[in-house]
Amino acid sequence: MKPYSNMSLTAAPFVYTRLPVFKINIAVLSLLGIQILILAISADFYALLNLISAVLGVIFVENLLRYLALSKLSFSLEMILSGLLIGFFMPTSIGFIFVFILSAFSVFIVKTVFGGTGHNWINPVAFAVCMAYISRPEAFPAIISNFSFLSEKGSFFAVMEANGLLKLKTDFAVTSALNSLLLHSVGVTLPEGYISLFVNSTSSIPAFRYNIITLISSIILFSIKAADYILPAVFLVTYAFLVWALGMVPVSNIYFTGDILSAVLTGGILFAAFFVMTEPASSPKTKYGKAMSGFFTGLFAFFICAQGSSPAGIFFAIILSNIISPLIEKLEIKIQAKNRRRYE
């Protein structure tokens, strides 16, 4: 028999189906780093300053709470990640001092009032963005879901163009190539401008800009099992279906004509779905709970964001979904109990 000092402990007979938390954080930070690098290359120093300020604000308040609880001070990847996500949704003109104070205050409230560290049932990033929008709405892009204007222009994308949407120089060439090579054969025509929304929407909020990077990052996260796909997938399906089915009803009284692409490529919908909604503390733990949370978030997002381009609507939808989380938890327990009874 081996001496005790030479023995090693293993995880057997348990099998881990996901990466450890440390590796998950590394993966998410690495993918966010791509967008940070793009901001640096494009010399968007105000956006970078907001990111740094948000991270410092989160680190400050987390260690303040530890100090007040007589615990050791620490520095973790979770703090950096929370700060970066808050910073990504801050308009570049909002001011880095405001971002520092906002991120510190928001995390303090969430961690002290809404459940405590690791048990908070309110998403801290969503709470911070909602507080920023309530405090300084003028710093955020304007809401352009005006029904009368929408009726005049005929489509939501036309409304965005009238409100100053900038197209990339390559938009026409790429759109023409896609239409002639792929889409015309199936009877579909992609209008100009959607490529710009997909690649770089030139929004004042960094999280709204690079939808193609966000989408590729989500595929990587799901493929390496660093994030669960159920909640964001159900959310996107629910929101997209409601926009398509009911989006144009208030304008033209016609069903199933809503613009899904405009909806999901504006307002930070993709970024919020893949990076914010999956926050472990405030999201449900079972697949049933995640599906229900995704459904309700999509429902709330439709009524708040309508056909898209809402500067902060998705975060109010997330907060509303967090508020009904006790109901979702009760439904989870009932479903699990019913499933267990089948094997008893």
UniProtKB/TrEMBL annotation:
Q: Phosphoprotein among the record's keywords?
A: yes
Give the record's GO biological process terms. Answer: transmembrane transport
Q: Which residues form the signal peptide?
A: none
This protein's GO cellular component annotations are: plasma membrane
The UniProt transmembrane annotation reads 21-41, 47-68, 80-110, 207-224, 229-248, 254-276
Keywords of the record, alphabetical order, are:
Flavoprotein, FMN, Membrane, Phosphoprotein, Translocase, Transmembrane, Transmembrane helix, Transport
| Name of the molecule in the record | Electron transport complex protein RnfD
- The organism is Treponema putidum
